Amino acid sequence: MLFWIVTVLIAQCSAQLPIGTTEVNDAEHIALVNTAPKRTWTAAYQKLFDGLTFEDAKGFLGASLSNISKHLSETRDNSVYAAIPDESLPNAFDAREAWPGLTQPIRSRRGCGSCWALSASDVLADRTSISQRSLVPALSSEDMVRCSGLVHDCQHREVSSAWGHLSSSGVATDSCVPSSVHRIRATQCAAKCKKGSSERLQRFRAASAYAIAGATNMHKEILSYGPIQAAFAVYKSFFVYRSGVYQKHWWESIPEGGHAVRILGWGTQARTPFWLAANSWGTTWGEKGFFKIFRGEQSCGIEELGPPYAGLPAARQADFIV
Fold it and tell me: pTM score, two decimals?
């Protein structure tokens, strides 16, 4: 009986899936996603991926995933989180509303994925701004890639590596070391700001860096200090996300790769709990660059892969200057 049920399900799935679909914006693929039962989100054509195949789209992913179980020695002591009772956590929270004007806007990092560097840089910028109560400049993922010893930014890294770099070396401002628009890239760590700039090279540094174990502690970190970094497994349907609370569909079993993002808060929509996250694919994708992903059940590994990571900014401005 079980064998018969499984056979029927496989046959139904095979009948629904577009055969030979290779383009991200394939109309049949989008239609299939939008007619799936019990869906909590909507898919749509994405200008960002116009003419691109799923193989091309993998270039937008750049995080090596690592389960939180391998990073428990890197977490903060539980006593730090015990100061905030679980029952006192609000039902919804948005860092943009809690700290108006102190979080970084959506950015766009195309081509080879350095999402691990960009989202970590934005989290440090957010947390520095919040701690200083003054907006700091955007920080440079380009600088982090170049100073991490990578020969090109297509090399994937774990988020723990990003935070190790932020705590040891720091990261320059984006205006000082802007992202390259060329395929041939500089591979050496910058010793001064871009040619023609009068800006002094300075690197913002994290005074601490740590993994975050569990959804409850993720809530408490965001509530106390601001956005955190997280990474998750990306499936084909995520590329065409438009709105709602994203969950991969039951027929999606093989991820396209890992992706790192910034989590700014949480909430519930139509009784579906979600994390509010900022992507790095520009404002034409998703909900003006943001997206919601199912919260509380390790959806795509969002609460354990990466793993979730953050740090506290250096306390004094002198700590930032090289």
Answer: 0.90
